[in-house]
Design goal:
By secondary structure, the chain is mainly beta. The protein contains 6 helices and 36 strands. The strands form 6 sheets. The chain has a 22-stranded antiparallel beta barrel. A 5-stranded mixed sheet has the order 1-7-8-5-6. The protein is globular and about 90 Å long.
Length: about 775
């Protein structure tokens, strides 16, 4: 393939190869990850031979990003702007393959990512920001989630049924991602129709806590130039040990592939998800510690919902062997809403009919959100020779129009009071826990809430035009340089409305952002290299779409009634690392040290609109190691660990300087192993660890107790063990057993800065999956 030196073949090239009946998948179409897990154990060399069987004879999942014969190892990124294999990319990129995700037994992205190295979960405004929220290397990333390289705005619940692989890019990433991405970004690579073969897979899972999950994945090659693929999902379960709280998911993803000529191909797809939960937060803090024996206090009327629809068109045209164009266009919508209960520790009053005892009272937290967005991204790939060197150039143009309208619900409790708190003589409150420490009879329907959708309070809009150029060039056989530069020009408006008086205000402004990155790799020998990289990121005043003018949570900071006057927040990252692609490229070992410094941070206070401009600065320094792939011909691993230190370097609040960042864990890691014991049977497990962390506002110090000086919103560290086993009954039929949280560890994922949202991790759960390929 002249003009594509050093690159792994992408689907367009594979399609041509597939026209031959002797075409193999060794060049990039991996044997089905689920099928490979269940093949008889052979040497790695034999596995490689199995990967070269005829395409039409193998029930495979045509994943062009996979490493043949290694179920947990991705070879290349699903974002084709990363032109080199992951083992040659000068940056830490953690990739979770579909096989690894399936074995883990987890399906929601928040649970898949909760203990990945360098990632912690957070809680949003009012304890919940409509859906998932992530913190990468100490920096907020809730708005830095992407699908196939395009930003996915809004705070929806995210599911994995249509995901081929999940990529976590570490460090500032604005040259790829645009605004934000101060600590990194998450990119979900979706399942797409393939013209290589027909296949179908159906799975049914049953388990404890009334768990039921049904999925289907069917690809049909209609002709040499047309294929269609459909994925479906139905899932429901009680939250383990927290019923009557429950989760329910329904989803569909349809993709159609069309290639009328060898030079042109198009993929059109639709993704829809209906998620409806009755959410249980789980606990709260008392005197700086998790309250013990807190029952499930979810109310019957509580809900957390996401209704997501996206339409995407992917067009590719190959002008020549060295010039091609990729066009991505997406329109999406998401309607999200929640009314949830927050628990607080309380003590009944002296006049309480049942006596004085510790109890739990509830608060209501609510909001709705309407997300509408359009995006178009054009990428021109040009491989050319300049000054005697081969260059891989990428010229990109992007336009995005994101709009997020947030509103409120009217929540009225119509149930009768059942206790006295304070000094009153009459019943004046709802006590969820009785004198015996158990939930009172009818406690899950005690409040009898009346819920009415009311008006909007903020209308967040941003339109952005972006241009970028990237280049990868081999200076010698060992030395490679990668560089990129991006320009973003945006127009921003936040309209606000008082939900009582309906008085409105508008905060418009516009600005330009410049960001870049530079990386150098040097090959040390077969499979080994060292690298150094620098990258920058920029975020804007009001960059978080769900918090309006709550300046302490990334909302608009207002000064003298206007938004103008703030410079963009700036992040810079330096990373030095090494990667070793060993054991015939079946195992990738990685290690890196890094430092991320964020300056010109806009600081706010709680829910106030008035804050300070560009007064904050913080730094995160750490190292990360990882291993992904085959350790032996029978043992597969996906593992990573991170240790980090954070420090507030500057703040308008002098007492914050020197403190650790909120929502930040110094150490975290995961080790997932799978052992192929026989031709038909494998088993494995995963150990996940998350270090102690403290709740608080983003980008600043965790709050401390004024008397003791100790951090006042702690979340204890935890270690969770999961196990799984699979038996291949026949070539088409597999049975898999998953037991999550085997030791029934009581653990917590995040805490709201007020202490009355302490999100509890799931208790032990058992799942039995029947998997059929045909």
């Amino acid at each position: 393939m002249s003009g594509f030196k050093g690159k792994t073949l992408r689907p367009a090239s594979l399609r041509q190869a597939a026209k031959s009946q002797t075409s193999t998948v060794g060049l990039g179409v991996a044997v089905s990850l689920s099928a490979m897990m269940l093949m008889p154990s052979h040497s790695l060399a034999q596995d490689a031979e199995l990967a070269t069987v005829k395409v039409q004879d193998t029930a495979i999942d045509a994943n062009p990003n996979a490493e043949a014969g290694v179920p947990y190892k991705a070879k290349i990124s699903g974002d084709e702007r990363h032109t080199r294999p992951l083992a040659e990319t000068p940056q830490t990129i953690n990739v979770l393959t579909k096989a690894q995700i399936n074995d883990s037994g987890y399906t929601d992205l928040s649970r898949i990512l909760d203990a990945q190295p360098g990632i912690t979960l957070g809680t949003g405004e009012n304890g919940n920001a409509f859906g998932d929220r992530y913190v990468i290397r100490g920096q907020e990333a809730k708005s830095d989630t992407f699908v196939d390289g395009l930003r996915d705005p809004g705070m929806t619940i995210r599911e994995s049924f249509a995901i081929e692989q999940l990529e976590v890019t570490k460090g500032p990433n604005s040259s790829f991602a645009g605004r934000g991405s101060s600590g990194g970004a998450i990119n979900a690579i979706t399942k797409q129709a393939t013209p290589f073969l027909d296949f179908a897979n159906v799975q049914g899972t049953v388990g404890s806590d009334d768990h039921l999950r049904l999925t289907a994945d069917v690809n049909k090659v209609v002709s040499d130039s047309f294929a269609i693929r459909a994925n479906g999902l139905y899932s429901k379960e009680d939250v383990p040990d927290r019923a009557p709280a429950y989760r329910k998911r329904e989803g569909a993803a349809v993709s159609a592939y069309f290639t009328p000529t060898d030079a042109f191909e198009a993929t059109l797809d639709y993704y829809g998800l209906r998620a409806k939960d009755n959410p249980d937060v789980g606990g709260y803090l008392v005197d700086g510690k998790p309250a013990s024996n807190v029952p499930s206090y979810v109310q019957q009327e509580d809900f957390l919902e996401s209704d997501v629809n996206t339409f995407t068109a992917r067009l590719k045209y190959k002008f020549s062997d060295s010039v091609r164009l990729t066009s991505l266009t997406r329109y999406g919508s998401a309607d999200n809403g929640y009314v949830i209960s927050g628990g607080r520790g309380a003590t009944t009053g002296a006049n309480n009919p049942g006596g004085v005892y510790a109890t739990t009272t509830l608060s209501a937290h609510q909001g709705w959100q309407e997300v509408r967005y359009f995006a178009n991204q054009e990428n021109l790939f040009v491989n050319t020779t300049l000054l005697g060197l081969d260059h891989e150039l990428i010229f990109s143009l992007e336009y995005t129009d994101n709009a997020v309208k947030n509103g409120v619900y009217g929540v009225t409790n119509t149930g009768a009071f059942n206790c006295i708190t304070g000094t009153g003589a009459a019943l004046n409150n709802y006590c969820l826990v009785g004198a015996n420490g158990a939930l009172v009879p009818g406690g899950n329907s005690l409040l009898k809430r009346s819920i009415v959708k009311r008006t909007w309070d903020t209308d967040w809009q941003i339109k952005t035009v972006s241009a970028s150029v990237m280049d990868t060039v081999d200076l010698t056989d060992r030395l490679t340089v990668f560089a990129g530069l991006r320009y973003d020009s945006f127009d921003f408006t936040l309209d606000t409305q008082n939900t009582t008086t309906l008085a409105q205000a508008s905060y418009p402004y516009s600005d330009d952002l410049w960001n870049g990155h530079f990386g150098v790799t040097y090959k040390l020998g077969k499979g080994g290299m060292v690298y150094a990289t620098y990258a920058s990121a920029a975020d804007i005043n009001g960059g978080e779409s769900d918090v309006g003018t709550s300046s302490g949570y990334g909302g608009v900071v207002v000064y003298n009634g206007a938004i103008a006057g703030a410079k963009p927040e700036r992040s810079e990252s330096y990373e030095i690392g090494t990667k070793w692609n060993v054991f015939d490229e079946k195992l990738l070992l990685t290690g890196s040290v890094f430092q991320v410094t964020k300056s010109d941070v806009m600081e706010g206070a709680n829910y106030d609109t008035v804050g300070t401009f560009n007064t904050g600065k913080n730094r995160v320094t750490g190292f990360e190691v990882g291993a992904t792939g085959a350790l032996t011909d029978r043992l597969t691993v996906q593992a990573g660990a991170t240790y980090m230190e954070s420090e507030v370097l500057a703040s308008a609040t002098a007492a914050n300087v020197g403190k650790t960042l909120a929502n930040f864990a110094k150490s975290s890691g995961v080790v997932q192993l799978k052992y192929q014991a026989t031709d038909k049977f494998y088993f494995g497990g995963a150990v996940k660890y998350e270090g102690k962390r403290y709740g608080g506002q983003p980008d600043t110090a965790a709050p401390v107790d004024a008397t003791t000086g100790a951090y006042s919103r702690p979340v204890p560290s935890y270690t969770v063990l999961d196990m799984f086993a699979s038996y291949r009954v026949n070539p088409n039929f597999e049975v898999r057993l998953n037991v999550s949280n085997v030791t029934d560890e009581e653990y917590y994922l995040a805490v709201y800065r007020g202490g009355f949202f302490l999100y509890k991790g799931d208790a032990r759960a058992t799942r039995l999956t029947l998997n059929y390929d045909f």
